[in-house]
């Protein structure tokens, strides 16, 4: 085996190890709400404050809170959930332009590969709440939408928090993507937009209460 093939083989083993570690460490957590958002919006941001308040609501009713573990909106969500009853979880990834993991995590897991980390975000999800963010937030949002749309994971509510921030995207999806036949009308209904912590909490909490299957894993049973 030449050096290049040997490196590829080791990469496969690292991926496998990271996947197994994530599955095992999250295996007993139960339902979790995933909160996404920018790492660049600190505690002076109203979005940070809303993420903190919302995560506390979830934690107090026993719903674990799952974030990317970094600063900004992620810190706000972990901070709100931390010590409030349920588990505050961070799926951390080292990036050159971001600070280290925030300190409000009951369970912190470190990832090297984005795609393994993103699987962990959706695997236990009973709801996504997506706050304003950048490329990474949009990547995670559209991956979740695609997985729900195609039936690769069980449906769960996807809430966009901040109507002013998200309105341009929603308009474009309707006026371009839907109008040109690239998505179906019902696909837009996969997302709900709100500016209210109470409404975001209610959307997710009602969906959780209505779930017939209380399995820990959100993947379809045939997979």
From TrEMBL:
Belongs to the LOG family. It comes from Isoalcanivorax beigongshangi. Keywords: Cytokinin biosynthesis, Hydrolase. It is an enzyme of class 3 (hydrolase). Signal peptide: none annotated. The keyword Hydrolase applies. PANTHER family: CYTOKININ RIBOSIDE 5'-MONOPHOSPHATE PHOSPHORIBOHYDROLASE. NCBIfam families: Rossman fold protein, TIGR00730 family. This is Cytokinin riboside 5'-monophosphate phosphoribohydrolase. It comes from the Bacteria. It catalyses: AMP + H2O = D-ribose 5-phosphate + adenine.
